[in-house]
Design a protein that fits this description.
Strand 4, helix 4 (94-115) and strand 5 form a beta-alpha-beta unit. The longest helix has 22 residues, at 94-115. Strands 3-2-1-4-5-6-7 form a seven-stranded parallel sheet, with helices on both faces. The protein has helices spanning 14-25, 37-47, 64-67, 94-115, 141-161, 185-193, 203-215; strands at 5-9, 29-34, 50-55, 74-79, 119-128, 165-171, 223-226. The protein is built from seven helices and seven strands. Bound molecules: NADP nicotinamide-adenine-dinucleotide phosphate (NAP). NADP nicotinamide-adenine-dinucleotide phosphate binds next to helix 1 and helix 2.
Length: 233
């Protein structure tokens, strides 16, 4: 039986929450984070099992060490948080760009820095990127940039944190995730038409792929698209 805590940064909603629910149901000690303390605590109660909540804002990386004090014996660390952003080079919003770059690259890295002393030799880290890394869309300038940064981050962390394993998952649009499940039908149908499997990726499939990256002891340094074959189109 595996032991140690599963930490899910961005575990109050969406894919992070789904993964936290899986590990809580499996009897693991789980820590989830969100920005608001009472909302995160309420979410931890809903998830149940041995789940506790912490409040932190990745856009304030200098605060993260204090926020994460008391998190120890980390078996799996999942970085899934995102604050959605639309930005383009012609209408460049510097404040928005700084916020997302800080959150996703500096904030994620600082969490790993703070928790590194609490990782075991067989621990693993999973970082969420996204398919905008390879398939930009209008307004994805910062999103595409940070998801490309995730790819580089994985490679350097594999070297610096060895033998801890580090992988990333790059989902296409997850059709039943809270972010996308209410999208207009025309958009949904257009996305399905561009996906070779003939359906959008599901949250359950992302959880399954996440478990593979977190738990398979041979998997290290992988940036895995989870996209139903979208990249072949
Ligand atoms: N859903 C998709 O289809 C999809 C597609 C491609 C990539 N992804 C990637 O997968 C990951 C999860 O996406 P999702 O759609 O499941 O996300 P989501 O439902 O929007 O949830 C975002 C999570 O991030 C937390 N968060 C937001 N801003 C934060 C901040 N400044 N500091 C700390 N935490 C913050 C939120 O917590 P609170 O609101 O409680 O503070 C929440 O737990 C993201 O990295 C995203 O880029 C998702």
């Amino acid at each position: 039986m595996a032991s140690g805590t599963v930490v899910v940064v961005g575990g109050t909603r969406g894919l992070g929450r789904e993964l936290a629910q899986h590990y809580a149901d499996a009897g693991r000690d789980v820590v989830i984070t969100g920005r608001d303390e009472s909302a995160a605590a309420a979410c931890a109660r809903e998830i149940g099992g041995s789940t506790r909540a912490l409040a932190l804002d990745l856009a304030n990386p200098h605060e993260l060490a204090d926020r994460l004090a008391g998190v120890e014996d980390v078996q799996h660390l999942v970085l899934a948080a995102i604050d959605r952003d639309s930005n383009s080079v012609r209408a460049y919003d510097i404040a928005a760009a700084l916020r997302l770059v800080t959150l996703k690259l500096v904030g994620y890295t600082e969490v790993i820095h703070v928790l590194a002393p609490h990782l075991q030799a067989d621990s693993s880290i999973l970082i969420f990127g996204g398919l905008a890394r390879d398939r930009p869309y209008p307004g994805s300038t910062t999103v595409t940039t940070v998801n490309g940064g995730v790819t580089g981050l994985v490679r350097t962390l594999v070297i610096e944190l060895a033998p801890t394993r580090v992988n990333a998952l790059h989902p296409a649009i997850v059709g039943d995730s809270p972010q996308w499940r209410d999208m207009p039908k025309e958009r949904f149908d257009a996305l399905v038409a561009r996906t070779p499997t003939g359906k959008l990726v599901t949250m359950a499939e992302v959880v399954d792929a996440s478990r593979f990256l977190l738990e398979n002891a041979a998997i290290n340094g992988i940036n895995l698209p989870v996209d139903g074959g979208w990249l072949c189109m």
